[in-house]
Design goal:
Layout lengths: L3 H31 L8 H9 L4 E7 L2 E6 L1 E6 L3 E6 L13 E3 L5 E3 L7 E2 L4 H26 L8 H21 L7 H17 L12 H18 L2 H8 L9 H44 L2 H41 L5
Antiparallel strand pairs: 1-2, 3-4, 3-7, 5-6
Length: 343
Amino acid sequence: MISLGRIASNKTLIIRTLTIVLLLCSSSLKMFAASGGDGEFNPGEMIMHHVTDAHEWHLLDIGETAVTIPLPIILYSSSKGLEVFMSGKFHHGETSYQGYSMNAAGHVVAEDPNHEFYDLSITKNVAALILGAILMIVLFVSVARPYKKDPSAPPKGLQSWVEPLVLYVKNEIVKPNIGPKYERYLPYMLTLFFFIWLGNLLGLLPGAANLTGNIAVTMVLAAITLVMTLFSSNKHYWAHIFNPPGVPLLLKPIMIPIEILGIFTKPFSLMLRLFVAITAGHIVILSLIGLAFIFHSAWVGVGTSLVVLFINIIELLVATIQAYVFTLFSSMYIGMAVADGHH
């Protein structure tokens, strides 16, 4: 039988967890409200401000003061060469610096319309990507160090949390879909799963970057899968493309272009699926939060906070599902490319 003390302890843990989540929602409400500026609240502007990339990392607003982390602006042009300075020089887009300014969309523009340059800046999403990479390195080095000292020791601490996930990705996703050659691709699949998963989870925090909701990031991930698929493919894979089995001869001129097009539509679907799922979740949450400031009602704020809390819990599940789906389909595409021919 479960003791009363354990039940009370579980209730206390649940209450504390809900309190923390509500405080996070409250801080999010304040932060989002401040993004409306001194004029009339614009929900569309607020949503785009938090979903799109930026040259500074906006955390929150305290009164009229915006708490931001300035990021490096790196510009290169044939006339001026390499120029590096911090985004704080623009003072949130209010001033210009060295012939450059920041427009309403948050892009760096030259005051001279004839001046052409390349923007190589470290934006918020790039900083989030670097932060996620560092977090993964620290996490896996910490997990691998005890195994290196004693491979037979039972997992503990972070190991007991990471090892089941690694084994699940290996035994339930990669191995069944790639087949006997799975070990060659396992490091990439594990990196892919944990990178997307951690990026999704970090993006749910107040003030965080929308890393996996950036189509450039999902495009690169899908492109890597495409390149690995093409370079791993064998003759049976290409024979299936250019000579589809079981297809009548008269239909092959129609099926071959479709098969070739399918090579590129597969990674395209990977790119769009992750981008749309993560961005749509953020837009729904931001839209619900904006209702409190559109109606100027505390009761609407309480109601939307409860709904946002529920959707945030769902988003935790979506974050895991999207990492699983991206890894699963990447394994399937590579598995089809390396599979031996069969009749």
